[in-house]
Design goal:
Structural class: alpha/beta
Strand content: 15-25%
Order of helices and strands: EHEHEHEHEH
Shape: globular
Radius of gyration: 13 Å
Oligomer: single chain
Length: 126
């Protein structure tokens, strides 16, 4: 069993970092990456539900907070990956599940995934 992930960020470096972290956790599988929020909206809206949606906040075309409003029903968890401070993000969107401050460390990434899974009683199959 695995949990599906999608990444939406207009910075390729940020996508690459999250991609590598996801690959290092055996029970996560990357569904897709997007550097354009409009493309992400179209693809994710028409596809299967995903488990972890990683969103940047400041993107051209559509803010990550707006994108999350459109995709919340298609994602079990929305995790903002942003250089904004967590308090700033909370003021923008008080309904997000988690926040990863950039630059993102593997330790923080792994801890966030495990915390969400434990809080929601999701099995971890290694």
């Amino acid at each position: 069993m695995y949990y599906s992930c999608a990444i939406v960020d207009d910075e390729q470096h940020a996508i690459d970092v999250l991609h590598d972290y996801i690959e290092d956790i055996r029970f996560l599988k990357l569904f897709s990456t997007f550097n354009n929020p409009i493309d992400a909206l179209e693809t994710i809206s028409g596809g299967d539900r995903i488990d972890f949606l990683f969103l940047d906040i400041d993107m051209d075309g559509m803010k990550g907070t707006e994108l999350s409003q459109h995709l919340r029903a298609k994602a079990r968890f929305v995790i903002y990956a942003s250089s904004h401070l967590e308090n700033e993000v909370r003021e923008i969107d008080s309904h997000f599940e988690c926040y990863l401050g950039k630059p993102i460390s593997m330790k923080r990434f792994t801890g966030t995934i495990h915390k969400l899974m434990q809080l929601n009683n999701l099995p971890i199959n290694n």
